């Protein structure tokens, strides 16, 4: 249950950061994209860790 919550939080954070990148000034665009990508990677790691026995 905790891993699923962690996955949901990371994925929601990545979506919020991607949305911020869409509305941010050009100077902050790359920062938000990098952070969203990192959160997406963390969400993937959490998801795969939850599927292990």
List strands and helices in order, with pairings.
Blueprint: H1 2-23, H2 26-51
Helix pairs in contact: 1-2
Keywords, separated by commas or semicolons:
mainly alpha; 53 residues
Radius of gyration: 13 Å
SS field, number of helical segments: 2
Helical fraction: over 70%
Total domain modules? 1
Give the total of beta strands: 0
- Which structural category do the helix and sheet elements fall into? mainly alpha
Which geometry do the CA atoms define? elongated
Show unreliable segments: none
Report the β-strand fraction as a percent range: under 5%
Mean pLDDT: 84
The major β-sheet equals: none
Order of helices and strands: HH
- End-to-end span in angstroms? 14 Å
What does this structure look like?
This protein has 53 residues and is mostly helical. The chain has one domain. 91% of the residues lie in helices and 0% in strands. It contains two helices and no strands. The longest helix has 26 residues. The protein is elongated. The mean pLDDT is 84.
Gist of the model:
With 53 residues, the chain is an all-alpha fold.
């Amino acid at each position: 249950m905790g891993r699923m919550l962690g996955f949901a939080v990371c994925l929601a954070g990545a979506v919020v950061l991607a949305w911020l990148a869409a509305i941010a000034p050009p100077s902050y665009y790359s920062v938000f994209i990098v952070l969203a990508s990192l959160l997406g990677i963390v969400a993937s790691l959490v998801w795969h860790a939850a599927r292990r026995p």
